[in-house]
């Protein structure tokens, strides 16, 4: 199985990037799964049938392969492709509380890119430095990992910032007091962060 995917940068819409030659990852590409499901189950519109179909195409080997092939995350076209239409840890809270049929969440799931703010750019810049500090402080090493897809529930995925056999790390770099308290409460993480942690743990334990 190959990790190879076209690396060149293009200006074509995000949606068009999924129409690539058939490869080993088609079986877990949500767009391809939707297409194949309609071919095989043309009369079914049940979500449970689609989820069962997705599970039938997933293997532990493929899940591990994806994680290894996408360790550079946002810089990797395969990572972006397999996040398309997939419920990830970062959008789980929004999905769970969504009450509209369209809007910004749907745009994000369809690959709409968020405008990078100065705070986001700062977080991206600081992330490897923070991971190194945490590693040194705890005297343990963390591996970078890519998109981790749940083998039994492949509609879900997560991309933590670091991982080892005991810990999963997600780095937040609040740029002001308000954003700090948005993510960190004096006693516990926020409801949004708890959902994100639950999904990382769920995927990591498979």
Descriptive labels:
206 residues; mainly alpha; Lambda Exonuclease, Chain A; three-stranded mixed sheet; 9 helices; globular
Low-confidence stretches: 4-13
**How many DSSP helices?**
9
By CATH, the architecture is named: Alpha-Beta Complex
Distance between the termini: 21 Å
Could you report the average pLDDT, rounded to the nearest whole number? 77
From the spread of the alpha carbons, the general shape counts as globular
Helix content: 40-55%
What count of domains describes the coordinates?
1
Organism: Daphnia galeata
Protein name: YqaJ viral recombinase domain-containing protein
GO molecular function: endonuclease activity; exonuclease activity
Keywords: Endonuclease, Exonuclease, Hydrolase, Nuclease
Describe this structure in words.
- The chain is built from 9 helices and 5 strands.
- The chain has a 3-stranded mixed β-sheet with strand order 1-3-2. A two-stranded antiparallel ribbon has the order 4-5.
- The model is unreliable at 4-13 (pLDDT under 50).
- It has one domain (59-204): Lambda Exonuclease, Chain A.
- It has 206 residues and is mainly alpha-helical.
């Amino acid at each position: 199985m190959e990790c190879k995917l076209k690396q060149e940068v293009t200006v074509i819409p995000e949606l068009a990037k999924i129409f690539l030659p058939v490869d080993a990852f088609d079986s877990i590409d949500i767009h391809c799964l939707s297409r194949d499901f309609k071919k095989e189950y043309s009369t079914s519109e049940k979500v449970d049938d689609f989820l069962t179909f997705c599970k039938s195409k997933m293997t532990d080997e493929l899940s591990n392969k994806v994680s290894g092939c996408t360790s550079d995350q946002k810089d990797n076209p395969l990572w972006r492709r397999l996040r398309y239409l997939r419920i990830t840890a970062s959008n789980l809270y929004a999905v769970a509380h969504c009450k509209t049929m369209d809007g910004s969440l749907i745009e994000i799931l369809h690959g709409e890119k968020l405008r990078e703010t100065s705070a986001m750019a700062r977080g991206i810049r600081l992330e490897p430095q923070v991971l190194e500090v945490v590693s040194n402080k705890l005297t343990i090493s963390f591996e970078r990992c890519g998109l981790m897809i749940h083998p039994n529930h492949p509609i879900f995925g997560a991309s933590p910032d670091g991982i080892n056999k005991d810990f999963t790390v997600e780095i937040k770099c609040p740029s002001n007091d308000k954003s700090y308290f948005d993510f960190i409460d004096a006693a516990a993480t926020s409801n949004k962060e708890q959902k994100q942690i639950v999904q990382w743990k769920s995927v990591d334990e498979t």
